[in-house]
Design a protein that fits this description.
The strands form three sheets. This protein has a six-stranded parallel sheet. The chain is of the alpha/beta class. Helix content is 48%, strand content 11%. It is built from 13 helices and eleven strands. The termini are far apart. It is globular.
């Protein structure tokens, strides 16, 4: 592979688009595709865009996939009309950056065995702002030589990209643990603030005071602030992501026969939010699942949409 690899980037969502921009900003040639024309147009100032995923993947040194779900990964790789497997070769390095769970990556590796074995699994954590700054945590699973070849891409996207295992899928296993912690911490923040509101406490003060002690966490500070401010339409991370990710946690835990009671309880809250029609609201809206009559926590006012 060349020292500066050419990159096909597939998936220009809330995280994928700033990641593609960060790559282009680091001087890597990027050809990008997304199903939505508006997403392609929004990146056209820094990257070449194509009308199909196959066109984007054609001839690229690295093909990076940043989609939302296992089904979308399968469609990108093996879809009848536009699956990129037809464009991959033994020299192509496939970089799976989506959070899709180990089972989906294991299945992709098996199906691609006759096409390419050069697959690096590298799910990310950090959100859209850190993605734009090239400041993500990337959990990398893959063979040493493959990781070395894709390192210019990882370094452009991440402030920390540790190799967590020698096989594709190892990164997903780490990300499952990460999402369990994040999902439970968001739910715990919502539950704590709902209890505080029910007792008539000043939520701004609760957030400020408890955020300085042993109960502090990143999610209490970050999502807790959005809960206090009722900032559910300032979508930094949509509820639907944790509906999906906590499902992956449950699926993976079942495969290894591990009880995850806290994750199970948190998953139920995200599902309730989804059933209320809040999939596209910020995930801090789990507070409203527990305290539906208080859309303005500071005043205890009635919920309004």
């Amino acid at each position: 592979m060349t020292i500066t690899p050419t990159v096909a980037w597939i998936g220009l969502g809330a995280i994928g688009a700033p990641m593609a921009r960060a790559l282009a900003g680091a001087g890597l040639p990027v050809t990008a595709f997304d199903l939505f024309p508006a997403a392609r147009e929004a990146i056209a100032d820094v990257a070449t865009t194509t009308a199909t995923a196959r066109e984007a993947a054609r001839g690229a040194d690295v093909v990076a996939v940043m989609v939302a779900t296992p089904a979308q990964l399968d469609a990108v790789l093996f879809g009848e009309e536009d699956g990129i497997d037809a464009e991959l070769s033994a020299d192509t390095l496939l970089l799976i950056m989506s959070t899709v769970g180990p089972a989906a990556v294991d299945a992709a590796v098996e199906r691609l065995a006759g096409t390419t074995t050069r697959i690096v699994d590298a799910p990310v954590s950090g959100g859209a702002t850190r993605a734009a700054d090239g400041d993500l945590l990337v959990m990398v699973g893959g063979a040493e030589a493959d990781v070395a070849d894709v390192r210019p891409v990882l370094d452009a996207l991440a402030s920390n990209a540790p190799v967590v295992g020698p096989n594709p899928g190892d990164g997903q296993r780490f990300k499952i643990v990460n999402q369990l912690l994040c999902g439970v911490h968001i739910a715990a923040a919502g539950e704590a603030l709902a209890l505080a509101d029910s007792m008539g406490l000043d939520l701004k003060q609760v957030h400020e005071v408890l955020g300085t002690g042993a109960a502090a966490s990143f999610m209490f500070e970050d999502r807790g602030r959005r809960m206090v401010d009722s900032a559910y339409d300032d979508v930094r991370s949509a509820l639907t992501i944790f509906v999906k990710d906590m499902g992956l946690v449950a699926e993976t835990a079942a495969q290894v026969d591990q009880e995850v009671p806290l994750a199970t309880s948190a998953q139920a809250l995200y599902r309730r939010g989804s059933e209320a029609g809040w999939d596209r609201r910020d995930d801090s809206i789990v507070y409203r699942v527990l305290r539906p009559e208080s859309d303005s926590p500071e005043t205890g006012g009635p919920a309004t949409d």
